[in-house]
Amino acid sequence: MTTWAQSLIRISTYEVETLQKRLADIADRRAAAHIRLGVLDAEAEIERDRARADPSAQMMLNAYLNGWKARKGAAEGDVVVLEAEEAGARDALSGAFEELKKFEHVAEATRLKALVAATKRENAAFDEIALRRRA
């Protein structure tokens, strides 16, 4: 394999690995955002239970729920943004992987052409040797 092909493949492999790490990071952040949504729902349910049991807590429940709605809306917005970012990262990774495969294919085709050319030269040399021996 030629050095230019090795260099292109090495660079493309690095790009694929970098994008895989980025995608994993985004997926982790998305999972954390979903967990945060679950925690917010659980906290709201706990506050509702407390308000049922304690009249003074019930007076504060509406204020809490207003803040909760704002926090939940922000967390849902984070999830939407992260899902879009994840889709973009998947597309970029797919493109980088296709590029890597193209470079590998070109390198293999170049290697095979060189092998065929070397075989032809070798056969021609053997034919020439055989003709000289006959003569």
Structure commentary:
The chain has 135 residues and is mostly helical. It has one domain. It has 2 helices and no strands. α1 (3-53) packs antiparallel against α2. 2% of the residues are buried.
Would you kindly provide a brief summary of this structure?
This protein is mainly alpha-helical and 135 residues long. The chain has helices spanning 3-53, 55-134.
Helix content range of the residues, please?
Answer: over 70%
Beta-strand segment tally: 0
* Strand residue percentage: under 5%
Q: Note the main sheet.
A: none
Number of helices: 2
Q: Span between N and C termini?
A: 39 Å
Whole-number total of structural domains: 1
Instruction: Find the structural class using helix and strand composition.
Output: mainly alpha
Rough outline: rod-shaped
**Poorly predicted parts:** none
Please trace the helix and strand order, writing H or E for each element: HH
Element layout with pairings:
Blueprint: H1 3-53, H2 55-134
Task: Name the features.
rod-shaped; 2 helices; 135 residues; mainly alpha
